[in-house]
Specification:
alpha+beta, four-stranded antiparallel β-sheet, three-stranded antiparallel β-sheet
């Protein structure tokens, strides 16, 4: 597998700097992320050859199978978000002092997934994860429940059929399997006006990602509430925020459900798992749409940062952020500004399509609040000497958009409400950091 060299045209970078980009930019970022995964998998193979591993033969066979697939088939397997995150974390473990905690054998499961999907005849040895109790996870495809004594499995694909063997048992796997021991990964399919969003709810594969599977609470079912909420959100995005919807459609591949907090909701992305969005069940469709508009910004910026340094090395200074209760490092501040540029843009469009009344007033407040918060933060960022040339272009692009938005009419009541919310947030932040007694 040979990674491709990537270039980003200046016009595309200009669009990204303005908080946009569109389907073309997302496709370029996704292609670069695939090359990153190819490099990481190659690094895993080289580290195993250098240091040795009891599963090396199985992993090498899996690598050869993947290398023999067509590029688009390989991309489908390696581009699954938890697989990309696993590859990054596994290289870090194998290259450091954590080799004993690594599970490089997941590459065999990834290759098996690709073979099943493409009906590629094969016979693969797949080592199971330590403590898996016979559970065979095929990332993005499903889980086979082998006997708890099984520590390895064989995946055989022949004449369009696939089976998993382990501890003397055989399980039919893949599309069309009715074996109760096979649990396919649920998929959420949304479509509106010809634009589709297809998300896998693969909570099982994240268990194998170093630092995520054990450090985050991930889980949940694709309930009717989830489906309804996201379907309504997708209609809203496609109807009134089509450019954002096109980016979401091109980028996102996996939904990671999170437990709901006591108040509000939670969402996030993982830097090395391009194409995934983590969120708790949003309270309503509009909130779900805002989450997607917010998180697609984080996904684009993380992928861009893999291609170009946005900041030069420097001191670990911390800064106030109008959307957080904790001080943020410079890279976190940059991410937050870019994400909230997307949030402000969402509410700006909502103002234009919402009839006068409470909903329109709220949209105005949110637009005024987050555009000003982003503008204040971008001004702070512009004064930083650590910005790289691309980082400077990004900040300048955001500043230009926010300057144009600053002169757009917003009611005096909404402007005042937004100001009070920002001041209250800053006052609470200051009080928490003021020594008492």
């Amino acid at each position: 597998m040979i990674p491709t060299a990537h270039r980003l045209p200046r016009a595309v970078l200009d669009e990204l700097a303005a908080g946009r980009g569109g389907a073309d930019a997302v496709a370029r970022l996704r292609a670069a992320q695939h090359s990153k995964s190819v490099l990481l998998v190659r690094a895993i193979i080289l580290l195993l050859r250098e240091r040795g591993h009891p599963d090396r033969a199985a992993i090498e066979a899996a690598y050869r199978l993947l290398a023999g697939l067509r590029p688009e088939q390989r991309a489908g397997a390696l581009g699954h978000p938890p697989v990309a995150a696993w590859a990054f974390g596994t290289v870090a473990l194998l290259g450091g002092a954590g080799a004993a905690q690594a599970y490089p054998g997941l590459l065999a499961a990834v290759a098996a997934t690709a073979a099943v999907r493409t009906a590629t005849d094969t016979d693969l040895d797949v080592p199971l994860a330590a403590g898996a109790a016979g559970r065979l996870d095929l990332p993005g495809l499903g889980t086979a429940a082998l006997p708890v004594s099984a520590t390895r499995a064989r995946i055989r694909v022949a004449r369009g059929h696939a089976w998993a063997y382990g501890a003397g048992e055989r399980i039919d796997i893949g599309a069309g399997s009715t074996d109760p021991r096979w649990q396919p990964v649920p998929r959420l399919e949304l479509a509106h006006h010809g634009l589709r969003l297809s998300l896998l709810l693969d909570t099982r594969s994240w268990r194998h990602v170093p630092g995520i599977g054990t450090g985050h609470r991930i889980g949940g079912e694709l309930t009717a509430a989830w489906r309804s909420r996201l379907d309504e959100a997708w209609h809203l995005l496609v109807e009134h925020h089509r450019p954002v919807a096109e980016e979401v459609s091109g980028a996102l591949r996996a939904l990671v459900p999170l437990p709901s907090p006591r108040a509000g909701s939670r969402s996030g992305t993982f830097h090395h798992a391009f194409g995934s969005v983590a969120m708790s069940l949003p309270p309503d469709a509009r909130s779900a749409a805002v989450v997607l508009a917010h998180e697609i910004q984080h996904a684009k910026l993380a992928a861009l940062n893999d291609m170009f340094a946005l900041l030069e090395p420097g001191p670990a200074d911390l800064f106030y952020a109008p959307w957080r209760t904790d001080p943020r490092p410079l890279d976190g501040l940059l991410h937050g500004a870019y994400a909230h540029l997307g949030v402000a843009g969402f509410w700006r469009r909502q103002v234009r399509v919402t009839a006068a009344g409470a909903a329109r007033y709220r949209a105005e407040v949110e637009f005024a609040r987050w555009s000003r918060a982003a503008d204040d933060t971008v001004r702070l960022l512009a004064a930083q000497r650590r910005l790289s040339p691309v980082g400077r272009q990004l900040v300048d692009g955001m500043a230009g958009v926010l300057a144009r938005w600053a002169v757009e009419p917003v009611s005096a009541q909404a402007t005042e409400r937004a100001r009070r919310l920002l001041d209250e947030h800053r006052n609470r932040w200051d009080r928490r950091r003021t020594p008492t007694g």
